[in-house]
Amino acid sequence: MRPTLLSLTLIALLGLPTASALAQEHVHAAPTASTSATPVQRYATDATLRQQMREIHGVVQALGHYEHDHITPELAARLSDQVTGHVNTIIVNCKLPPQADEALHHIIGPLLQDASALKANPRRLDAIAGMRKALDQYAQQFDDPGFPTSPAN
What pTM was estimated for this model as a whole? Predict the structure, then answer.
């Protein structure tokens, strides 16, 4: 797929490492308006996507401890970086068909935004809820039988 200005701008604004390298490897197509929140058929996944989304799920579970003051803001910032790293791995290794790629954009975009927001301002606990929502959306739209249906708080 060819990189789009929106995708490259998103990568640059979010401070993703080596935006030009990611653009050479693979950049997702810009999402378009969707007419349905849930597809009739769930999209197929590949091993990398499944593994990285499960890793993100684990990180979001750990961030639940931050909501209850059980971990420090510094650890929460490191966990936010892990979410970003896992999303970057998904982007670099993405081999989904265009429709699934577009649907995934509506999931990984908010994950990146929320991880960045939490890192920039540790009081943005709503960012953790946003990550949970993105993970729920993934569970609804993608065929990943081993994926938990909802991250624990």
Answer: 0.73
